[in-house]
């Protein structure tokens, strides 16, 4: 087995909760008394561009909510969106241990809109772990598409067989596996620790 030199981590669903998933949107619809079907339809049409950095948060909100008057402000809704992000402390502890060994190049490969991504990087001090962020909003490509993984490999100039990618969704592991990267399906902190150990990663 080749020696692992590089670890790429997903963020939402692994280190943090998902940034703006269906559950969060459902809660937003209940909190702000939105028509769920209308909101979800507009979200579905707008989110791919938002996730890939092609439209801003304000443009996303214009499309999904503020195309008509609302009894709440843009700032109130944005604050609600950001407040959905929480840390998974057990998994973060595993990541911290890996980082502190200083034996690995550690980066993120994640799907996230620009403003939400920047908020999460700052609020949870993600720079203490990650040297680089291959985020959909910067790369303009989303998982599970191959492009985002190719960019990560080409920019870092790391052989795929020396790379290990961790994600909580099986579909997101298929393309990196085809490219020759090693993968772990994240199911919890203890399982992750054991799987990293099998690849010889110090935790």
> What's the helical proportion of residues?
40-55%
Q: At CATH's second level, what is the architecture of the largest domain? A: 3-Layer(aba) Sandwich
If strands are numbered along the chain, what order do they take across the biggest sheet? 3-2-1-4-5
Order of helices and strands: EHHHHHEHEHHEHEH
**Uncertain stretches:** none
The pLDDT mean sits at 98
Say which CATH homologous superfamily of the largest domain is assigned: HAD superfamily/HAD-like
Strand content: 5-15%
Number of domains: 2
Q: How far do the termini sit from each other? A: 18 Å
Q: Any idea of the CATH class of the largest domain?
A: Alpha Beta
Q: Major beta sheet, specifics? A: 5 strands, parallel
What's the tally of helices? 10
Helix/sheet category: alpha/beta
Query: What integer value in Å does the Rg equal?
Result: 18 Å
The count of DSSP E runs of length 2 or more, i.e. the number of strands, is 5
General form: elongated
CATH topology of the largest domain: Rossmann fold
Short précis:
The protein is an alpha/beta fold and 203 residues long. It has ten helices and five strands, in the order E-H-H-H-H-H-E-H-E-H-H-E-H-E-H. The chain has two domains: 125 residues, HAD superfamily/HAD-like (Rossmann fold), CATH 3.40.50.1000; 62 residues, Putative phosphatase, domain 2 (DNA polymerase, domain 1), CATH 1.10.150.
